[in-house]
Amino acid sequence: MADLPAERLQTDPPFSYVGLDIFGPWEVIARRTRGGQANSKRWAVLFTCMATRAVHIEVIEAMSSSSFINALRRFFAIRGPAKQLRSDCGTNFVGASKELKLGPLKPGEMSVDNYLLSQRCSWVFNPPYSSHMGGTWERMIGIARRILDSMLLQAKVTKLTHEVLTTLMAEVTAIINARPLVPVSSDPIAPLILTPSTLLTQKVGAVSPLPGGFTKADMFTYQWKKVQVLADIFWARWQKEYLNLLQSRQKWQVNRPNIKEGDIVLLRDKLLKRNDWPMGVIVKALPSKDGQVRKVEVKIFHHKTTKTFFRPISECILLLSPTD
Q: How many Å apart are CA 43 and CA 224, to the nearest integer?
């Protein structure tokens, strides 16, 4: 297990170092017609602060670079400029990076964009098939996506409007940011629970729900009641599924020899057909600051063509090393 990245330990203002990803989609009512209604899809961008673990959610109308850039501008307008963005190699992120010239597509390289030169913001892409390298935001994405999909894909709650969805995402943001960051103390002298919301707002306590009880029957009366019912459902699922995960995990504690240039490896790929075994040779090892190699450049000869990929070592199985 590598040491925490330096971005996780900086004392900069919140959302100076940000990890982001997109989840969805969900259907909303775009407009009403004589024969019924016309639906469209919406996605959400989840921005995660690398230091405070706070989240910020923006709703977008399309999985395109243009929609993502608008969401990025709204995020900067509310939370202030960031110093570094981190994401996977999603096509919408790559397209936005090309249009804004935020950085090269190859892992390990970094540059500063003219568009964000005054903020000195750079964009870092994780290697393909390495979701564990973005665990800071992937964990929040995984839990929120699973709960929201199970809620919003039901037939009874598909009649959402854009306003209801954006309000629901604001409620979801408040719930996620109210989670405890450290184990709750039993000391009566220190009853304060440290949460991302406390670090953001410098205020103790979360946003209180609206008075009165809400039932599923209220979803079909007023739009604001529908939001509260959905927020209560999300809170119940979040409390049940997330709180059980607040425990330390032991992973990757044993040191292993580094993969070196010239090693023969077998690539793991879930999309390959049966009995298809792509073997390759390591042409470049990319060590981290602690000297451990966690991502490599591998060249394979597959179907009479030669290709080069960046992959994490978790997707490479060492077969033969010339030094052995």
A: 21
